[in-house]
Amino acid sequence: MVSLLILILGGLNWLSIGLFEWDLVSKIFDGSDTVGAKIVYIIVGLSALYALTFLSKVNAED
After folding, report:
1. Of 1, 15, 6, nearest in space to 40 by CA
2. Global confidence as pTM
3. Could you tell me if 15 and 7 are in contact, meaning their C-beta atoms sit under 8 angstroms apart?
4. What's the pLDDT score for residue 62?
5. What is the dihedral of CA 38, 43, 44, 50, to 10 degrees?
6. Which letter does DSSP use for residue 45 in this model?
7. Is the pLDDT of residue 52 over 90?
8. What is the residue-averaged pLDDT of the chain?
9. Counting beta carbons within 10 angstroms of the beta carbon of residue 7, is it exposed (0 to 12), middle (13 to 18) or buried (19 or more)?
């Protein structure tokens, strides 16, 4: 559940970047090169990798 929430928030951030060229994580941490922003980006990426494990379960149910 936590991984799903993180992925949704990360996806919404990418939506705001794509539509408005506005990066919420970068704004919160005063730049995308800061340690805090990098940690957030890493957590979102790890959540995406974890979500990949569910693909086999979804495909097995079909």
Report:
1. 6
2. 0.76
3. no
4. 59
5. 150
6. H
7. no
8. 88
9. middle
**Integer Cα distance of 55 and 21 in angstroms:** 31
**Structure tokens belonging to residue 38:** 């990098």
Q: Are 47 and 10 in contact (CB under 8 A)?
A: yes
Could you tell me what percent of the chain has a pLDDT over 70? 97
- Please tell me the number of Cα atoms within 13 Å of 51 on its side-chain side: 14
What local confidence, expressed as pLDDT, does residue 43 receive?
Answer: 92
Cα separation values, 61 from 18, 53, 54, Å? 33, 14, 11
Distance CA 1, CA 12 (A): 17
As a whole number, mean pLDDT of residues 39-45 equals 91
The label of the residue with tokens 């990098």 reads 38
